[in-house]
Amino acid sequence: MAKNTSKRAGRSALTALFVAGAFVLTMCVMTLIGLLFPLRPAYSEEEKRELTPFPAFSIQALFSGDWFDGISAWYSDTFPFRSFWVGEDSRLKATYGFAGQQIHGDVQKGDEIPDVPSTPSKTASAPSTVSAASDGASQTASGQDAASQNASSQTASSRVASSQTASSQPAIPANNDENLSAETMGGVLVAGDSAYEFYNFVNATADRYAAAVNRVGDMLAGQCKVYDLIVPTSTGVTLPDNIKEQINSSDQGKAINYMYSLMNGNVVTVDSLTPLLAHRDEYIYFRTDHHWTQRGAWYAYDAFARAAGKTTVPLGNMRKQEFDGFLGSFYTDTGKSPALAAHPDTVEAYCPNDDLHMTVTQKDGSTYTWPVINDVSDYPQTLKYGAFIAGDNPYTEIENRSLTDGSACMIIKESFGNAFVPYLTAHYQTVYVIDYRYYYGSISQLAADNGITDVLFVNNVSATRNDNLVSRLEALN
Amino acid sequence: MVFSSLFFLYLFFPLCMLCYFFANSIQSKNTVFLIFSLIFYAWGEPKYVLLLVFMAAADWFLALCIEWSRRQPRDHGKLFLVLACVINLGLIGVFKYTGLLLGTLADLTGFPAVVPQILLPIGISFYTFQLLSYVVDVYRGDVKAQRSFKIVLLYASLFHQCIVGPIVRYKDVERELLHRTVNINEIAAGATRFCVGLAKKAVLANMCGQLADSLLAPDSLAAADLVTTLGGRSVLSLWFGVLAYALQIYLDFSAYSDMAIGMGKMVGLHYKENFDYPYMSGSVSEFWRRWHISLGSFFRDYVYIPLGGSRQGDAKTIRNLFVVWLLTGLWHGASWNFVLWGLFFFVFLVLERKWIGEWLKAHAVVRHVYLLLVVYFGWILFKFSSMSAVGTTLLGMFGLNGNAFADFETLTILKSNLFFIAAALIAATPLCKQLALRLKERCDRQTVTAALYGAAQTAWPVILLVLSTITLVGNSYNPFLYFQF
Q1: Using an 8 Å Cβ cutoff, are B134 and B63 in contact?
Q2: Which of residues 150-189 of B touch A (CB under 8 A)?
Q3: Which residues make Cβ contacts (< 8 Å) with residue B434, sequence separation at least 6?
Q4: Shortest Cα distance from B346 to chain A (angstroms)?
Q5: Distance CA A335, CA B473 (A)
Q6: N or C terminus of chain B with fewer C-beta within 10 Å?
């Protein structure tokens, strides 16, 4: 009996030794990993943000405690192998419940969308071939949003720079426009292998958006024809109806109609929702990224071409390239959702066969030439939307040397426009691309100087609820 | 600095323990602890570390005065005690309650026009109470005054418990501050406890907090938006939101105590338990004997009993209870909702004492459900400082905001976190602990199974540590901050 007891005591002391040893060892290993300063990342590609830098020292910061706080923040934000830990965190959270659908971030309820008086619509009507699509789906089309788009393509361009400096490309700085303050967007819903972003209609901002477009229409009246094309996001189009009916996301069709109803006679509105809905079974939106695919952009282009009296160039007449392994903004937004990671997107890019020359002007004013569709096979997996027109840049000119008629148009866009722009080159000798978020020049001057006849706004519906972006549109002159 | 930051975990704490290990005498070990503790405190509050040192110095000096006075022909001990109370309570009053007092005054009378915003020194509610208990205990003769200022300062500032408790009594640690030994069994138990606490905080409590934010409303919302948001939440969302919040509060708070107790054990300091599975209680009075025990016993020993406790008739008992619960509420925060929350418990304590206590004892299931409901609704008062938010939540829980019973978002969130919620619920019960004990008994019968159990025991803290690290790095993952759309 006594022998047994002492044996047990010995055993428990031995176990304790192991327990304490394993604990101390783990702590030491983790501490050493934490001390591997050279391995600390400064930038997170997936999150598209600079990680917290080591704080600058100042007496003030020392006494206020900010310097110490900064050190703690730096230490955890740049912990070595960050990407690995984050991925494991996502895998852990995937075990928290039944897979299938998940919501990331907080969902905000949208404003009530005012009813539009049933006056005859000025909206360029969709071709009758797709009208079959308005089978009720368009009635319930609810919205969502889209958000970080250009962040991805922007960093795409900075990546291009870093990976291509050898080939005499100018360094392209990362775009960190201080004027566009940090903005937390709404929640993201993961359903199966696809993600969708919630869209909450904001009445006041929608009103301001319509007024901003009207103002440009008035400003350029007599000089240019102004078109407005609001792009729905995937929640309003490809999200299955049974989910769409239930979620707390504003109706995008209703929201777009409302904004169109506010536009005056100097603006021609283009309905892209109807054709997109008609083709909702096709690959028109990415599943892991909030953008549309270039195929999706084609249906909107088709609607625009009809409204502008042009002959649409079919996709089949263009050169197709595919870049697989794309895990876009939704993948990042959801903290690397394993459900999304299992089925990456493929970027299908269509390039017109004409002789195109693109000149990109960066934020710092420097310029470089770049292919309209770039090979993004070697880009990081989150940045492949950067294939189109070199990502987001303040100002870009594309010349079609196959044309000599002097025709010119201007497109005012955020990143949804990137996939759209290549199609315009078939109809205009020069396409002037303005990313209104970063462009501070005068568009009326630009239009006058270059004989621009058509001005097209391509804005995704999520942008129309964003205070910062609408403020930038209001500043256009 | 908080225990659940990577900086603490993988730099501060290991460095401190390394220095501690190489310090060869108890004096130098204490010096190591003191230096690290002051750094720990200064990390969040560089200026207020002076306040902490000043308060410790004042109480150290006054305790010596009390003892000195006792040996004099005329004992002025009481004078020094009153002075200590004035200093301690005065400072906590100025730093913690000025805003509330003047704000309320401004609301009522329009004066003063500008209410000064005073930054609350971290942990002031905890270390003030520790120092106060020390002086009172010296006055009562329960403990001798400590001659060394270093020891008193160490007692007040020791980073294990300075910021979020437990509120350690000097008489409980006096001996161990000066002489302590430690054996391998305690180091192992301390390490395990530390990791359990860390995981409770990093893996469970943080996620519960996120769920509460999603199901109720994020703390960052402005008051007006808060009511609108809550008004739109479904019935199910509100019920589960409050549940997630109730779990968060318990797991978070008890996790800090676990970590403190664990770190203490690793070096031979024994702090008393601070939580004893409070949600398993069968009455409000039992709940408060098992929830934040060190605070409850502080008010019992230094307020309730000195006021006469329950021995001077019903009227005085009720008065004493009222005072204690008023103070308990106020202690939790400088806002009237905390006062209401304290008085909410006072009402049930009186009910139990006078009428339903005996009946509850006889009905095991009912009394448990009753306690859970009381505490559950109490947390709504605790969560929202605005009464309109409290009202909206309560109405919404019964579908009286015109809100749906359930909606897609709520169901999606619940489905994708079902196992997690179950795990968090289990973590609030002693189930795992009991299972582990039973398993150990079984396993101990044979060498092979005992070895297996030992291996599991060894792996457990490591697994928890790694899981915590994963979630802590994951939490700093912030792709939602779109710097540009």
Answers
A1: yes
A2: 184-185, 187-189
A3: none
A4: 36
A5: 11
A6: N
* Residues of chain A neighbouring B11 (CB-CB closer than 8 A): 31, 34-35, 75
CA pair distance A269, A124, nearest whole angstrom: 6
Tell me, what's the pLDDT at B293? 95
Interface test with chain A among B7, B119, B462, B483, by most A beta carbons within 10 Å: B483
Q: Averaged over A323-352, what is the pLDDT? A: 89
Please give the DSSP secondary-structure letter assigned to residue B477.
-
Nearest CA-CA partner of B2 in B41, B55, B57: B41
Partner A contacted by B466 (CB < 8 A):
yes
Q: How confident is the model at residue B1 (pLDDT cuts 50, 70, 90)?
A: confident
Please list every residue in chain A whose beta carbon sits closer than 8 Å to the beta carbon of residue B401.
none
Closest CA to A412 of A400, A402, A401, A424: A424
Between the alpha carbon of residue B273 and those of residues A146, B184, B262, the distances in Å are 50, 21, 11
A144, A234 contact by CB (below 8 A):
yes
Q: Residues for chain B: how many in total?
A: 485
Burial A106-121 (b: 16+ CB within 10 A, else e): bbbbbeebeeeeeeee
* Residue among A75, A447, A246 at smallest CA distance from B411: A246
In chain B, residues with a C-beta closer than 8 Å to the C-beta of A462 are: 485
Q: Given the structure tokens 């536009």, which residue do they identify?
A: A263
Instruction: Confirm if B210 and A102 have CB atoms less than 8 A apart.
Output: no
Q: Are the C-beta atoms of B483 and A49 separated by less than 8 Å?
A: yes
Taking an 8 Å cut-off on Cβ atoms, the answer to whether A8 and B185 are in contact is no
Residue B111's pLDDT is 81
- Give this prediction's pTM: 0.81
Between the alpha carbon of residue A193 and those of residues A196, A330, A337, A401, the distances in Å are 10, 11, 9, 42
Shortest Cα–Cα distance, A331 to chain B (Å): 10
Percent of chain A as helix, strand, coil, to the nearest 5: 40, 20, 40
Q: Note the pLDDT tens digit of each residue in B404-426.
A: 899 888 888 999 899 999 999 99
Q: What is the pLDDT of residues A24-35, one digit of tens each?
A: 999 999 999 999
**Which of chain A's residues have a Cβ under 8 Å away from the Cβ of B195?**
23
C-beta of residue B122 within 8 angstroms of C-beta of residue B41: yes
Length of chain A: 477
Per DSSP, A355 falls in state -
Q: In 10 A of CB A153, how many CB atoms?
A: 30
Active site residues of B: 332
Q: How far apart are CA A203 and CA A464, in angstroms?
A: 10
**Is some CB atom of chain A closer than 8 A to the CB atom of B308?**
no
ipTM confidence score: 0.92
How is chain B split into domains, by residue range?
6-180, 187-427
Task: Kindly determine whether residue B409 and residue A107, on different chains, have CB atoms separated by under 8 Å.
Answer: yes
Tokens read off for A92: 């852990």
Inform me whether the C-beta atom of residue B47 falls under 8 Å from chain A C-beta atoms: yes
CB A362 within 8 A of CB A173: yes
Sign of CA dihedral B448, B454, B459, B464: positive
Over the range A438-469, which residues count as b (16 or more CB within 10 Å of their CB) and which as e?
Answer: bbeeebbebbeeeebbbbbbbbbbbbbbbebb
Burial zone of A221 (CB within 10 Å; 0-12 exposed, 13-18 middle, 19+ buried): middle
- Is A356 strand, coil or helix? strand
Contact criterion met (CB below 8 Å) for A275 and A130 = yes
Q: Which residue, among A331, A240, A338, A350, has the nearest Cα to A291 in the 3D structure?
A: A331
Number of H helices, E strands in chain A: 17, 16
To the nearest 10°, report the CA torsion of B225, B231, B234, B237.
Answer: 50
